[in-house]
Amino acid sequence: MSSTTAGLTRQWTTWGPVVAAIGLALGWGRDHLPGFAVALIVLCLIAAVLSAVHHAEVIALRVGEPYGSLVLAVAVTVIEVGLIVTLMIGGGDKATSYARDTVFAAVMITCNGIVGLALLVAALRNRTAVFHAEGTGGELAVVCTLTTMTLVLPTFTTSHPGPEFSAAQLGFAAVASLCLYGVFVAVQTVRHRDYFLPVTRPGQQIDDEHAQPPSFRMAWISLGLLLLALVAVVGNAKLVSPTIEDAVASAGLPKAVVGVVIAMMVLLPETLAAVRAARRDRMQTSMNLAYGSAIASIGLTIPVIALASIWLDGPLILGLGPLHMVLFVLTAVVSALTVVPGRATLLQGSVHLSIFAAFVFLSFSP
């Protein structure tokens, strides 16, 4: 074993995903865990999140931007889709709106929570946060289009009663979402890649600009550990979800709160990675992580849910209610005003965080 590999093995970020995966294996299949077990699972969840952020940064250093942020966003979303389907299979009638609640929560968390927090950190450190309006504006346009097509239109269609798509409409939404996501990835990574690279200020020196890229072996090890950590994050989130559901029911809170809490736990890796990028004045990377995660969450979740609905029993409620539609419209307008100038200040970050706080509060008290 080389000294580099041995050094990696000694790091806690190597053992964190392994321990979290062991905790997942020991707790899997149990409907309810005792209190001490839930506490241990939460600790494993935290270790897996921090490890995922570290290994995502190692991969990003090897492959460069915007591929690094794309890897983390897609990996988290793919596993998140598996979590949603698993919850819907075992959740019965109460799970009919899990997909809608979790996906919309992901949109609000990424577009307001992650973006707002990253803008706040970058503005406090450098007075203004700078990014490419062309690339970020394109990402925002895709987020708004996908959200409207999949979560807003079902409330207004008339082919099927209730806030649901008919089979044909759901198929169209799934194919359109997948195609639009594919076009976005092609534009981000090939055709207009420069729009999604960090903006460099005159005389700026970025911390990792001259860092030695890891070897291919190290990058592959980090990729494997990243996937293991993400599986542990989502799997352990599922293990604690019955406890969350019981707490929500006992407190008399809306069942949509479950989707909000699960989305928050699953998106922790992107949140931490975006904040760390903002501290390094790499605001474009933060934007890629935030909006890219929202795009992947919709563009990959809806097609899979549409396919899974063939054998899933019960209705598939996708349409948003009036309250959430108002929050989405407010988010779209404010986001456009933030993105168009290509730079933002402390004020824009505070506005986004205020919208996110309103979403969380109204989820608990609609």
Fraction of residues in helix: over 70%
Distance, first to last CA: 57 Å
Query: What Rg is obtained from the alpha carbons, in whole angstroms?
Result: 20 Å
* Binned strand content: under 5%
Mind explaining what this structure looks like?
With 366 residues, the chain is mostly helical. The protein has a single domain (69-203, 240-364), classed as Up-down Bundle (A middle domain of Talin 1), CATH 1.20.1420.30. Helix content is 75%, strand content 1%. The protein is built from 13 helices and two strands; from the N terminus they run αααααβαααααααβα. The chain has a two-stranded antiparallel sheet. Helix 3 (35-63) runs antiparallel to helix 8, helix 4 (67-91) runs parallel beside helix 11 (283-308) and helix 6 packs parallel to helix 11 (283-308). The protein is globular.
Layout of helices and strands:
Elements (H helix, E strand, L loop, with lengths): L2 H8 L1 H16 L7 H29 L3 H25 L6 H29 L2 E2 L2 H20 L14 H25 L24 H35 L5 H11 L1 H12 L3 H26 L13 H18 L3 E2 L1 H19 L2
Antiparallel strand pairs: 1-2
